[in-house]
Amino acid sequence: MSRTLYDKLVDAHKVCDLPDGDMLIYVDFHIMNEYTSPQAFSGLDQKGLNVWRPEAHLAVIDHVNATRQRDPHDDASKLLIENLEANCSKHGIAFYGLGDQRQGIEHVVVPEQGLVVPGMLIACGDSHTTTYGAYGALGFGIGTSEVEHVLATQTLRYKRLKTMQVVVDGDLGPGVTAKDIIMKVVQVVGAGGANGYAVEFAGSAIKTQGMAGRMTICNMAVELGARAALMDADDAAYRMAAGRAHSDLLHFDTEEWSADPGAKYDKVFHIDAAQIAPLISWGTSPDQSVPIDGTVPVVTRDMTPKARAALDRALTYMGLVAGQSVQDIPIDSAFIGSCTNSRIEDLRAAASVLKGRKVAEGVNAIVVPGSTFTRMQAEAEGLDQVFREAGFDWRPESGCSMCLAMNDDIAMDGERLASSTNRNFEGRQGRGARTHLMSPAMVAAAAISGHLADVRTFRTEEG
Amino acid sequence: MPKTIKGHAAPLPLANVDTDVIMPKRFLITITREGLADGTFADLRFDDAGAPRPDFILNQTPWNKATILIVGDNFGCGSSREHAVWGMAQLGFTAAIGTGFAGIFYDNARKNGLALPIVTPEVRDQLMTLAADPDGGEFCINIETRTITASNITVPFQIDGATQNALIRGGDDTLDTLEYAETIRAFEAGLTDKMRVRVIK
């Protein structure tokens, strides 16, 4: 019988069924950060438990560390950083801390180190673990109690999800990127539209994406509620994993990590790639987006009172007027970074727009490369010079930084940002901060213009 | 854990209440589970100076003693932070009733005994109206029979068997799973050596 890729991955990792209807699944690889793991380690201590298989875990510092300099910016973040290092040392777990060339945002580090290959099951105390679906690996976020569970048992209690297929076929227009594809998918399916589902992406517009673009798409699939996002593993996925630090892992080749032809899904969506424009979010939920040449939504007659109230609330928070053109919206800041869009390909895309241009006066522009390795690669390519000459603050350290503002990169009340990140929630980048999500190239275009701008009107380095 | 949860309910009709709103990040820089009650819904409950916002439902009588929330669609979306659930429990909440919850939040709630009954949009709206009535009285959620009783109505809710069992039984998933240690070892024995991840230190 034809199986989905999701079902193949779950079947391959099922340890046993449990009497209450859940199953135990085996976790091949588990990643930890400093903010969702401390209480898991103390749970082990309280119960007198050991780590089941210490070599199957990696801990990375990324959420709370400063990126302006290496030293912690305050005592609280220092405590979290030291706590993780001490826990890893005690339990014999690999730790990529500050100053280590392998350090960076966990979902940028793991592919760089060759720690994701098709067929794996990866868990991490971070919702954006869906990223690994780009490789045909089943990755998903877990809470701290589950982090403890994986540490102690190398398994998770798991319930099989329903499946959804999202097919994106056709050719993308100029200036339209993977970020625009996933923002379109979130807009169509809705935030929460995939709650309870594993999403499999298919179609020509997906297959023609490079691995970085595929990761951007799977990464943000969690914004539609997907607990897992998957793409068929192809040659590109295997090629990317080869030749990296952990390439001896390339042996999950027990079966084809792709959906069988004719596999059935509980829900299917079709999206025409040619109809996708560069998108920007105008509201406070990632599904609230419009094309860059569009306008802020207005109340319509068929809206329920609830929808009307939600629109009003979002407009008030964002300080926008219904019906205004989004290209007229001025920005205070531009941020390029995050596990969604801080890879070398993202930096190159932004740099191609910035080259020979200057950030508009008064705009605070920041770029935080996704990992130390990515930063060094970018510097070797001279990208740091392009950013610096344009007026961007090129950060010497890597981490999540202003994507979620858990370090000292906190936007001010009312500050409006063009951001290459994943969430435009109220207060996400700082209390009262107003986030507009978009692709890295669009952030660059906005930084230069001083307002949200259409990247298609810019001649890039490549022409 | 009792098989029934009783308490006053408060309406929180906003859709897509994310875990950044439930537990803002400035409360997350901690290595313990404790001390999160004040952080829960902090930006909704308090103004910049730290004074309670009088227009927020949980700051109003009688909803300030609510232990059950009736919530909008897609509650708990966003980050995986379990701090959101710890904080809700520490603030005294025992259940949130909604039409659907984000997956990680749902699992985190189960681990901490916070019940999340799932109802249809019609039933949710009905319960929202009852909760908005200051004289609405207590809600009673029966985990075993999968029903909610409020005022003069009794309505069904959905909950999967494993979560229902976990709420009633309590217990510790980690310790319970270790009873399957032999089964896990047998599974591992079937993996080829090169399928066993060894992270380079």
From TrEMBL, chain A:
InterPro entries: 3-IsopropMal_deHydase_lsu, Acnase/IPM_dHydase_lsu_aba_1/3, Acoase/IPM_deHydtase_lsu_aba, Aconitase_4Fe-4S_BS, Aconitase_4Fe-4S_dom, IPM_dehydratase_rel_enz, IPMI_cat
Family matches, as PROSITE patterns: ACONITASE_1 (PS00450)
GO biological process: L-leucine biosynthetic process
SUPFAM superfamilies attached to this UniProt entry: Aconitase iron-sulfur domain
Pfam families: Aconitase (PF00330)
Domain of life: Bacteria
Swiss-Prot/TrEMBL catalytic activity: (2R,3S)-3-isopropylmalate = (2S)-2-isopropylmalate
Cofactor requirement: [4Fe-4S] cluster
Domain Aconitase/3-isopropylmalate dehydratase large subunit alpha/beta/alpha: 7-450
Keyword set includes Oxidoreductase: no
Pathway the protein contributes to: Amino-acid biosynthesis; L-leucine biosynthesis; L-leucine from 3-methyl-2-oxobutanoate: step 2/4
A GO MF term: 3-isopropylmalate dehydratase activity
EC numbers: 4.2.1.33
Matching CDD domains: IPMI (cd01583)
Keyword Transferase annotated: no
Family: Belongs to the aconitase/IPM isomerase family.
Functional note: Catalyzes the isomerization between 2-isopropylmalate and 3-isopropylmalate, via the formation of 2-isopropylmaleate.
Assembly with partners or alone: Heterodimer of LeuC and LeuD.
Protein name: 3-isopropylmalate dehydratase
From TrEMBL, chain B:
Record-level GO cellular component terms: 3-isopropylmalate dehydratase complex
Record key words, sorted: Amino-acid biosynthesis, Branched-chain amino acid biosynthesis, Leucine biosynthesis, Lyase
Reactions catalysed according to its record: (2R,3S)-3-isopropylmalate = (2S)-2-isopropylmalate
Key word Lyase present: yes
GO BP of this protein: L-leucine biosynthetic process
GO MF annotations in UniProt: 3-isopropylmalate dehydratase activity
Domain of life: Bacteria
EC number, UniProt record: 4.2.1.33
Pfam families cross-referenced by the UniProt entry: Aconitase_C
Pathway the protein acts in: Amino-acid biosynthesis; L-leucine biosynthesis; L-leucine from 3-methyl-2-oxobutanoate: step 2/4
EC category name: lyase
Residue stretches making up the Aconitase A/isopropylmalate dehydratase small subunit swivel domain: 4-121
Quaternary structure and partners: Heterodimer of LeuC and LeuD.
Family: Belongs to the LeuD family. LeuD type 1 subfamily.
Described purpose of this protein according to its UniProt entry: Catalyzes the isomerization between 2-isopropylmalate and 3-isopropylmalate, via the formation of 2-isopropylmaleate.
Protein's UniProt name: 3-isopropylmalate dehydratase
Lineage of producing organism: Bacteria, Pseudomonadati, Pseudomonadota, Alphaproteobacteria, Rhodobacterales
